[in-house]
Here is the input.
Amino acid sequence: MIINRVDKSTCIFSYDNIKECTTHVFIIKKKNRVYVIDTFCGTESMKPVIEEIKDKEVFVINTHFHWDHVWGNSAFKKDLIISHERCRKILDKAWESQIEENKEYILGNVEKCLPTLTFNNKINFHEDGIVLFHSPGHTEDSISIFDSETKTLYVGDNLEKPIIYVENGDIASYINTLKTYMEYDAERIFAGHTLNLTKKDILDTINYLEALKRGDKIEFNTDYERKIHEDNLKMVSEGEI
Ligand SMILES: [Zn+2]
Here is the structure.
């Protein structure tokens, strides 16, 4: 695990425990509290994060329901855990099956721990200049976070390089979310598995999704990208039924 202190308030924890898939947890320190974006794979993985927080109030954010973003929730049982309304619902149903399918990645303790504050459209934390908003794309429950003080946009798994995972057939909503990102005055864009994205990456992803929707033939350089693209194609065709 690597800790990268980007500026006075922003800190990135990067984990390499999952094969070929670096995963990032972010913390944003504000005057009266600390926001923790995603909780990776269990209590053990959250120890360095908790050490960095010290005694401040903590608001945990789950960007979406996938196991590699929520299993550390039980390290924050006393704190507020915020997500989209649908994230809580899906997690409630899928908690056990996600454990069953990926248990080799558990780090420490993983108890079922659902979000305690949910929203539908957006939620503003005015004194901290932070907004959380629904951004369906990678999954239907995905949310994003914008910190207006540092002009940093956190997009969960909606952007990823070299290729995104489409796990929801609603491509029109995905494209709409990416167009919304373009309206934010973001100077930094961070995703759950990729750092330092740019507005060009957003535009490239919109183009990819439009090509996917049209069924264009797309060439890739690696087997990994071809495999994910095949899965994405399947998801799109299922979404159209
Ligand atoms: Zn995901």
The domain at 2-163+189-198 is CATH 3.60.15.10 (Metallo-beta-lactamase; Chain A). The mean pLDDT is 96. The CA atoms of residues 136 and 173 lie 6 Å apart.
